[in-house]
UniProtKB/TrEMBL annotation:
This is Uroporphyrinogen decarboxylase. It is found in: Cytoplasm. Homodimer. It comes from Panacagrimonas perspica. NCBIfam families: hemE (TIGR01464). The gene is hemE. Catalyzes the decarboxylation of four acetate groups of uroporphyrinogen-III to yield coproporphyrinogen-III. GO terms for molecular function: uroporphyrinogen decarboxylase activity. InterPro entries: UROD/MetE-like_sf, Uroporphyrinogen_deCO2ase_HemE, Uroporphyrinogen_deCOase. Residues 22-31, 142-158 form the Uroporphyrinogen decarboxylase (URO-D) domain. It catalyses: uroporphyrinogen III + 4 H(+) = coproporphyrinogen III + 4 CO2. Keywords: Cytoplasm, Decarboxylase, Lyase, Porphyrin biosynthesis. The record marks D77 as: Transition state stabilizer. Belongs to the uroporphyrinogen decarboxylase family. The keyword Lyase applies.
Length: 353
């Protein structure tokens, strides 16, 4: 196994001692950075940026050159899989993602096939290989995918969801067909993540952005169980690679999520890290959980809130500092810097023995 100069993030995932709390930000390469906006203008649109491994590498490294962060995350999107399935993905300014051919019938579900990671999705693997090469032994790289449930919401609704009426009706009226859709996505996400690991990703994260809109019973069947099957598959196809599960608004499900065999759980700001640690901290690492809107406040308040998140988790290993969800495009880069600086100053005290 290669040795990294900065392995704090991987050590924290294994709940091993570190000198200070590792930090990264969800969506750390993104529109809040002027250098990102310049790279994106070179590419044209967002998917052209994702399809260009050199530019993906450039934007992945931008936040690392600006801030003392502890891990890189692949620049890509969760919607690469449904795009590769032929659903016709477009990003419309101000509207977010749209699919020209959403999945609405049993027939359409039956026709779906898992994309080949080194075929239709080769551009993603090329981006992982390019970024891995550029990082060298500097720090780890996170690969990622959407959860089957979250991907299904976009594929069935055809767009970002509001009340999720279309997909929930399908879930109620055609539960078996719907299980078939999720199985195809389990297969797709498992092979996609294993291929990212083979291409050089050191850790893997599953974004379940919309698991929190389900009843507890539906969450278990349609969101958690497919993620568990992926973690189990990866234990065979990518043995030893740490997997982070993040269900937004999933605070009530942490115990069941920890039972999947994953290494860590992402926690949003609606759950306290102290509570999360009491419940599952003996079994998994925890990643989070500053409310991203905090970065709109004055730097003194950002520092206080960073201190509060650190104190909330408390002493000892197993914490990866992050926002509770993606950094917003309107965020001042200086305010993100203030959070990271505060973390660097305040967190060593939590790791003294
Ligand atoms: O964290 C990182 O820096 C890695 C990059 C990353 C992106 N998307 C880049 C991106 C990651 C991890 C994602 C995941 C993603 N994509 C999720 C789940 C994560 C979460 O926050 O819960 C979801 C739901 C998507 C789907 C998606 N892609 C949406 C809703 C949007 C925003 C559309 C809009 O117009 O606001 C995207 C586009 C996207 N993905 C951008 C970035 C930087 C913005 C694209 C741009 O306009 O330049």
């Amino acid at each position: 196994m290669k040795t990294l100069r900065n392995d704090r993030f991987l050590r924290a995932l294994r709940r091993e001692p570190v000198d200070r709390t590792p930090v990264w930000m969800m969506r750390q390469a993104g529109r809040y950075l002027p250098e990102y906006r310049a790279s994106r203008a070179k590419a044209g649109d967002f998917m052209s940026l994702c399809r260009n491994p050199e530019l993906c590498c450039e934007v992945t490294l931008q936040p690392l050159d600006r801030y003392p962060l502890d891990t890189a995350i692949l620049f890509s999107d969760i919607l690469t899989i449904p795009d590769a399935m032929g659903l016709g993905l477009r990003f419309v300014e101000g509207e977010g993602p749209l699919f020209d051919r959403p999945i609405r019938t049993l027939d359409a579900i039956r026709r779906l096939a898992a994309p080949d990671p080194e075929g239709e999705l080769r551009y993603v693997m090329d981006a992982v290989r390019t970024i891995r090469g550029a990082l060298g032994d500097r720090m780890p790289l996170i690969g990622f995918a959407g959860s089957p449930w979250t991907l299904a919401t976009y594929m069935v609704e055809g767009r970002g969801g509001h009340d999720f009426a279309v997909i929930k009706k399908m879930m109620f009226d055609e539960a078996e067909a719907f299980d078939g859709l999720l199985s195809t996505l389990v297969e797709s996400v498992s092979t996609y993540l294993a291929a990212q690991h083979a291409a050089g990703a050191d850790a893997l994260m599953i974004f379940d952005t919309w698991g929190g809109v389900l009843t507890p019973e539906s969450y278990q069947r349609f969101s958690l169980n497919p993620m568990k099957r992926i973690v189990e598959r990866l234990a065979k196809t990518a043995p030893g690679v740490p997997v982070i599960l993040f269900t937004k608004n999933g605070g009530q499900h942490l115990e069941k999520m920890a039972d999947t065999g994953c290494a860590a759980l992402g926690v949003d700001w609606t759950t306290s890290l102290a509570d999360a640690r009491r419940r599952v901290g003996g079994r998994v690492a925890l990643q989070g959980n500053l409310d991203p809107i905090t970065l709109f406040a004055k730097p003194e308040r950002i520092r206080e809130e960073t201190a509060r998140v650190l104190a909330d988790y408390g002493h000892g290993p197993g914490h990866i500092f992050n926002l509770g969800h993606g950094i917003l495009p309107q965020t001042s880069p200086d305010h993100a810097g203030a959070m990271i600086e505060a973390l660097h100053q305040l967190s060593p005290a939590y790791h003294q023995r």
